[in-house]
Design goal:
0% helix, 5 strands, mainly beta
Length: 66
């Protein structure tokens, strides 16, 4: 299914990010996930993010105070 709009019309992405859940000892208990809608149509649903993403700093997401 092609949900792209015609040329010269705005395309939209809605991205819902759920951060990883931290458990005991500063370890990740549940990985982060992402859901993506393209022009209002669900294209990715609750996809697990494996490993680090680019950007941001290099500190651990489960460090104290985060």
């Amino acid at each position: 299914m092609n949900v792209s709009r015609p040329p010269k019309e705005w395309q939209t992405y809605d991205i819902v990010f759920h951060a990883p859940k931290c458990g005991a000892g500063g370890k990740i208990a549940a990985p982060g996930t992402v859901t993506v809608l393209y022009n209002g149509v669900l294209v990715q649903d609750n996809v697990t993010i494996r490993g680090r993403t680019t950007g941001g700093d290099d500190t651990d997401v489960c460090e104290d105070g985060r």
